[in-house]
Design goal:
Length: 387
């Protein structure tokens, strides 16, 4: 989605960082086993949106701002003289580890005093590495997801399970997780390691929640509310966990204070929830050509998402269909028809909008920079995207 003229282009703000991302990930993945290499790089070569890395880069920039506080310059001078070398505070740890020093030197300004208070500092090497790790984990989850979902297409091409077969897809996904874990550990940042390791288990939990989507207490008091809560919990695990925790990790790597790190998390969580809500709307409203994968697939897979839960409030006959995962002949078609007749899609969009409002509010504590405007524009993109 291209924003109207006059508004910032989030991908342009971090285009330098994004341009290097794919070749960098390719280097991280080379295994020397051609089958594994081609399976693991298959989705990386396709036209992925690089949405998560883009958000990590924007968050890194939005939170890496020289604080507008008195004494800032004096503090920098004292740090510099302490280490007798014109380096930024953030790259100090780099000197202890050759791997990290390579990471940090590439993007740091030579002298932090060159950065005026309130001005954005470049993205750190460690934050770039985080973006690469996040894309690796996301891609690994897609490789596994397409096996679990028996997918046939993704991004307008045969899906990896079709291209390489189930076995290589699973192994390539595992391999990517292994590589991601190695590079995560090399960041030498315990909180970031914990955050991202937890994402991996939460992705699996989200997938399991989805498989066991159907409650057995159909018709009981508060069933709709409980179903929606369960769905949002699943949505957090499946989508928002990776985005929210990588936003927080980006801020933590930049040395952010707790309120800033928390605001990054709150932004990521609500934007991630909205992202998946719109994904679930697009399953009803998008075309397969636009999406590059089959549209109206969820009902066929037995999945009830927000539009159908809201529609059910207007059309009680949806209840038993949801409970039996739309498995009787004609269920999916009838359910789709009722969703279109209902306010389900509109109400799902409204919920996504309210999450985006919360996300926007959270980052108002950041200084007013181009990167923060980029994060705000990402929210508009999430709400108006067509694929
Ligand atoms: C896409 O959902 C899938 C995910 C967001 C997560 C999938 C997670 C697993 C398979 C667990 C294993 C995790 C790892 C890290 C290897 P979707 O099927 O609704 O979307 P789609 O339409 O793009 O396929
Ligand atoms: Mg899928
Ligand atoms: Mg799936």
């Amino acid at each position: 989605v291209t924003p109207p003229p006059g508004r910032v282009r989030p991908d342009k703000i971090v285009s330098t960082e994004l341009n290097h991302l794919k070749s960098q990930i390719s280097l991280l993945l080379s295994s020397g086993y051609p089958g594994l290499d081609s399976a693991s790089k298959y989705y990386l070569q396709s036209s992925g949106k690089l949405f998560r890395p883009m958000v990590v880069f924007l968050m890194a920039r939005a939170t890496s701002v020289a604080p507008k506080v008195q004494g800032w310059e004096a503090a920098c001078v004292s740090l510099e003289s302490k280490f007798n070398n014109p380096i930024a505070p953030k790259s100090i740890i780099a000197d202890k580890n050759p791997d990290l020093s390579l990471l940090s030197s590439r993007s740091m300004p030579a002298n932090i005093l060159g950065t005026a208070p309130g001005e954005a500092i470049a993205v750190l090497g460690t934050q770039r590495r985080l973006a690469e790790i996040v894309e690796l984990i996301h891609t690994a989850s897609l490789l596994h997801d397409d096996v679990v979902d028996h997918a046939e297409t993704r991004r307008g091409m045969p899906s990896a399970n079709v291209f390489s077969g189930n076995k290589l897809s699973v192994l390539a996904g595992d391999y990517m997780l292994g590589r991601a874990s190695v590079f995560l550990a090399r960041l030498r940042q315990p909180e970031v390691i914990e955050l991202i390791a937890e994402v991996i288990s939460e992705l699996v939990k989200g997938e399991l929640y989805q498989l066991t989507n159907t409650r057995t207490d159909y018709g009981s008091e508060g069933y709709l509310k409980k179903s929606l809560d369960y769905y949002l919990e699943k949505t957090y695990l499946k989508t928002a966990s990776l985005i929210s925790k990588s936003c927080r990790a980006a801020a933590v790597l930049g040395g952010a204070t707790e309120p800033v790190a928390n605001a990054a998390y709150v932004y990521g969580k609500h934007m991630g929830l909205a992202f998946q809500l719109i994904d679930d709307v697009l399953d009803y409203t998008g075309s397969s050509e636009e999406l590059g994968k089959p549209a109206t697939a969820d009902l066929e897979l037995g999945l009830a998402t927000a539009p159908v839960f809201y529609a059910w409030e207007e059309f009680p006959e949806l209840g038993p269909m949801i409970a039996r995962k739309f498995e009787q002949p004609g269920d999916a078609a009838r359910a789709r028809e009722l969703v279109y007749k209902s306010k389900g899609i509109e109400r799902t969009r409204e919920l996504a909008q309210s999450f985006c409002d919360t996300a926007k509010e959270a980052i108002q504590i950041f200084p007013d920079t181009e990167a923060r405007a980029g994060l705000e524009e990402v929210l508009n993109m999430v709400l108006s995207r067509k694929k």
